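User:
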Amino acid sequence: MAALSARARALISRSALHGNLSALSARSGTPLILPVKAGAYGHGLEVTARLAAEHPGVWGFAVAVPREAQALAALELGRPILLLTPPTPDEVPVLADLGVRLPVASLAEAEALPPHARAHLKVDTGMNRLGARPEEAVSIGRRLHERGVLEGVYTHFATSDEPDLGFAHEQFRRFQGVLDRLPPVLAHASNGGGILSLGELPGMALARPGLASYGFAPAHLRGVAPLRPVMTLQARVTHVHTARAGETVSYGGLWTAPRDTRLATVGLGYADGYPRNATGKAQVLVQEERRAVVGRICMDQFMVDVTGLEVQTGDWIEVWGRQVTVSEVAAWGETVEYEVLTGLGERVERIGVA
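Assistant: Predicted structure:
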C-alpha cells in the first residue's frame, strides 16, 4: 500500500545544526553533549541525532527519560548517551547494559550500580531540582571512583541566561569546590546560556547546549555566536475558497471578511503544536509574502488570507523558519520557544535536509 503524505513537515537543516554546534564548541572550548530530549526539542530524535553524530564536536547525547535513551541506543550511532533524570531501580541494569551513562546523586544509588555501569555524579549547586548537595557530593564521588564506575561530574546553571550572572558564578564556585576534592573526571556545567554568557570555563571537559544548538538565544545574548534556526516548518494548503464580505470565519465568528476574501485552509492546528493563543495575531509566509492567519486557530487547521495570490490545494506554506520566526510564534502564543518547538506533534513529518 502506498504511503500517504503528511499535511505538515519540519525540515531539519544539517548545515544550520552543524554551524551552531561548531560555534558553541568553539565558544565553550570543549566538545559537546547534545541534548536530544523531548524529540530533540521537537526536531525529531532520530533525524537530529543522525545529523549531529556526523559532527566531530559532538561527544555524545543527553536525554531526559529512559525510553529516550533506549530509542537512541537502538540507532547505534557510536556516541555516549547520558541520562539526565534518575532511573527507577529496575531500569538501572537495562540502561547499564545499553551503555547509557547514569546520573547518581546518593550513596544508595552509587552502591546499586552494576560493576559495568558508567556514572555521572550530579551536583546540585543551586538549581534545587536534582542532584547531591556539594557537601554530600564528594563522598558519593569518591565511592563511585572506588567502584571504578565514575566517568563524569556535572551541575546545571539556573540563571546563566539572565543578564545578572552573579548566581551563575556562585554555582560554578561551588562546583569547583567539589571537583577539587575528586579525581580527574569529565566535568560539565554549561548549558546554552552558560556557553554564550560565560564562554570557556576552567576545568570543564564538556558542555551541554540545549536550545542554542537548535538556533535560539536569549535576546541579550543574540549575536554572541552565529546561531541559525535548524527547523523550517511547512504545511499544505488543503482547501481554497472565497469568504464573501460580511461573512465570519472559524469558531466564534471572531473575524469578519471586510471584502470578498480568498482564503486558504492549512492542514496544521493546535493538536500539532501550533498555539491556539496566536489567534488574531499570527502570520505565515505564502509565496514569499507574509499573510495573516484569520479566525480562530482550530485543532487540525487554520485559515489564511491569500487574496491576490495564485494559491492552489497542495501548495506548501511556511509556518515558521528564518522569515517568520519561532520567537514570533511564541510571542503570539504568549509562551516561549521551548514550548512551541517541543509541542510540535507526531503528525508532523521530520525530514533532514542539507
